[in-house]
Amino acid sequence: MLLLALAAVAAAQSVGVGRMLEQSGQFDRALEEYRLALEVRPDDAGAYEGFLRVSLAVGRADSLVVLSGRLATRFPNDSRYALGRAEGLLALKRVREAVELLNQVAARWPNQVVAAVDLLERAGALAEAVELARAERDRSRDRWYWTSRLADLYERAGRRPEAARELAVLVNLRPEAHRELLPRFRELATRVDRRRLLAVVREVEDQWARARVEAEVLLATGREAEALAAVRSVMDRDGLYGFGHEAEDGGAFNAALAVYQELGLVSEQARVLRKLGRTREARAALEKSDSPEARFELAQLLRLEERDQPAAIRAYRQVLERRPRDDNARYGLAASLAATGDLAGALAVLAEVRNPADSVRLLDARVLFYAGEFDSCRARAMQLASKSPSSPLVNDALELVLLSRAGERAGGLARAMMALEAGRHDSALAIARRLEQGRDDAAENAWFVAAEALADAGQARQALDELDRFVEQYPQSRRRARARFVQASVLRDRVGDENKYREVLERLIVEDPSSSYAAVARALLDEASRPVDPGDIR
Predict the structure, then answer these.
(1) pLDDT one-digit tens code per residue, 188-222
(2) How far apart are the C-alpha atoms of 173 and 148, rounded to whole Å?
(3) What region does 78 belong to: left with phi over 0, alpha with psi -120 to 50, or beta?
């Protein structure tokens, strides 16, 4: 017993030394310590895991295969040594031997099949991983997991028609799950022949789920009228309303407009018409209705598109008379008041918001900046950053913190930004051009004011060029990532090019992976398919 205890202590010491050596990058010495630990105590899990990890890292997979084989013989009932040997064989490109061994593992230890498929997938042996996953699905009770896994493997292997078929099987297993699978069908629609994909979709048995998935494929391929026809026959009014919002969120504005027209929803029609650039039609439709929803949408149009702030203020006040708790209307009213120069009025309205969203806090900080109350501006901006550190608006808040310390030139920048808020694009651009001549925070921010003024004036391409010139002028600036982020926003919101929008966000992540804008870009790319509540403050 004493000898066993001493052996355990010695093994533990070697494992501890091995980990320290591994963490310091001394891999060869770490490997030797792990080997010594296994000589003293062959069943030490920590020592084996360390040996496996380091041997693969330093290209000593042959040693892993030999050691794992020896331990598997000594401990035939322990699956980890067979799995370790298979991982070593895969690293040595001895795929056939590895697959044979992993099939044995699957047969003997059914609870290790997931680990076996993981190994094959990580090694890039995707065809072999598919075969093992298919065999396991045939004998497993968990058909959902293995079908989902097969769909992933097929997609990774570029076998997209087969991936689509597995997704259709998933919908048949759980028809209610079709909603979470819509983004995957939409992605496949851009890579698989439409007719071939629709033939697979028609294998879905549930009528509602089949119609909705078929519509998603048609929307993704630009066939909006056909998409609406696919769902119209199976959806009631509530279903069509939901489909309209989903189509709108996905950029299928014509389909959304047709749904809203069919349902007689004036404010929704106007919102989509605005997105299509048909503001005159939107205004005409809204002026025929006195509902709070229509009044709010009219106020948004007046503030954001027509820049008629006095008229917007009247419309927002009409909404608040009938819906005094409407913080969306209160935000819009404050923004319009600020644009007319009534900063005190704007601050008073913002103070009435009970549960301020990040956008409200940012507007509050911005109005304080315009008013020259820089200490209060910093406090509001820091409040946003501390309460919502992952918010997409944090970067703008932190920018205000920096600008509030810019001294006299902060006043000039505030005037340019206020001119921009008021829709006086020429004035904003003229002030920004003068400020650009410096080499300080105010100068760098002036480029962004200029770009926004150009975009607001309908010169989106010139705005994109302005931001390209900024990157050339300030290649080492910490605001380079911000320039790319603003470019992406212009491409999405002004040009309507979703593909370019994604490309620029991806470029931002590659160029400035550690910037806070990169974190926001990753989140936006991840959430691009998530529906957005159209009632959110805009």
Answers:
(1) 999 999 999 999 999 999 999 999 999 999 999 99
(2) 11
(3) beta
